[in-house]
Design goal:
Layout (H helix, E strand, L loop, with lengths): L2 H8 L2 E10 L4 E10 L5 E4 L5 H24 L6 H9 L8 E7 L6 E8 L4 E7 L11 E2 L11 E6 L7 E4 L4 E4 L9 E14 L6 E7 L11 E3 L5 E12 L5 E4 L2 E4 L3 E9 H11 L4 E2 L2
Parallel strand pairs: 7-18
Antiparallel strand pairs: 1-2, 1-4, 2-3, 3-6, 5-6, 8-11, 8-13, 9-10, 11-12, 12-17, 13-14, 14-17, 15-16
């Protein structure tokens, strides 16, 4: 059913790998997906793809404050060495602070210079620089936000789950290096039906964001990827998976013990095209509309 649509979506669906390193030297990598929207380098993805960058920015400020306070204590000639050590030990400092971060946007030497996000709808647009595009590059068509897709409509998502990516940090040139076999990253589609429309309400100001719910879960690595119909028209962006309690707990044996296990139905939530179009308009991003 989705053979042609997946082929179309593969033209504009790409992986993003986020690598980070802590003060203690621990390196972590996570993979997500993004949609190449137009020839100007604008892309669409899930807002939480940029979460590590926001954490890194906050940690960088905390590190600067720590270093300034420590320097002030060390340069205070009126304090004896023991007092200096005691005061320094009381300063807020964490081994888990991020000191390096990198985004790999499916190509080397590609960076983002600006991004605009809607955290409640969990979507973000960013403009990439250094991206190499051919004259034959295809871009997505987005559905009409005024159209309410019927319950039961078959949809498919595309992204990059089920692939292990490891990296090391090269101190000599301050770059992350992927382990052999990390590339290329294979795509993985997963279809389902539209089960419900879901409105998420902000807890403080009653602002809402619209999502579609699908009968299948979104997989890690598919966040930020497209949700499209059999014609390849994009109707949403994969955001998260929710676990709906089924209301029964069968008893099973685990390591010789009888335990009760809660049962869940895993469903996927994806940011609705109406939220996507509003973000495009806010950021001034041009895009293709479906016929």
């Amino acid at each position: 059913m989705f053979v042609n649509a997946i082929s179309m979506a593969a033209e504009f669906t790409r992986p993003v790998v986020v690598s980070s390193r802590t003060r203690e030297g621990n390196v972590a990598t996570n993979c997500g997906s993004f949609i190449l929207v137009n020839a100007e380098g604008w892309i669409l993805t899930a807002a939480h793809v940029f979460q590590a960058y926001q954490v890194y920015t906050a940690h960088r400020e905390a590190i600067t404050n720590y270093e300034q306070q420590r320097r002030g204590i060390e340069e205070n000639a009126a304090l004896p060495p023991a007092k200096k050590r005691k005061l320094i030990s009381r300063l807020e400092c964490s081994r888990d602070w991020l000191i390096n971060i990198s985004f790999w946007w499916g190509q080397d030497a590609v960076t983002f210079k600006e991004f605009v996000a809607n955290p409640l709808a969990d979507i973000a647009v960013a403009r990439l620089e250094g991206l190499t595009l051919t004259s034959e590059q295809k871009f997505p068509r987005f559905g009409d936000p005024k159209i309410d897709l019927p319950q039961g409509r078959s949809l498919c998502r595309l992204g990059f789950p089920f692939h292990s990516i490891k990296a090391e940090f090269n101190e000599d040139n301050s770059t992350f290096v992927f382990a052999p076999g990390a590339l290329p990253i294979p795509r993985f589609p997963l279809d389902g039906i539209l089960t419900r429309n879901v409105n998420v309400v902000h807890e403080s100001d009653s602002v809402t964001a619209r999502f579609i719910e699908m009968s299948t879960p979104g997989l890690r690595g598919q966040s930020g990827g497209p949700v499209f119909d059999v014609n390849g028209v994009v109707w949403a962006v994969q955001s998260q998976t929710r676990h709906l309690e089924l209301g029964f707990q069968p008893t099973t044996e685990h390591h010789g013990k009888r335990v009760q296990e809660n049962q869940f139905l895993n469903v996927g939530l994806a940011s609705h095209v109406s939220e996507i179009v509003k973000l495009f308009e806010t950021a001034g991003v041009t895009y293709n509309k479906a016929d």
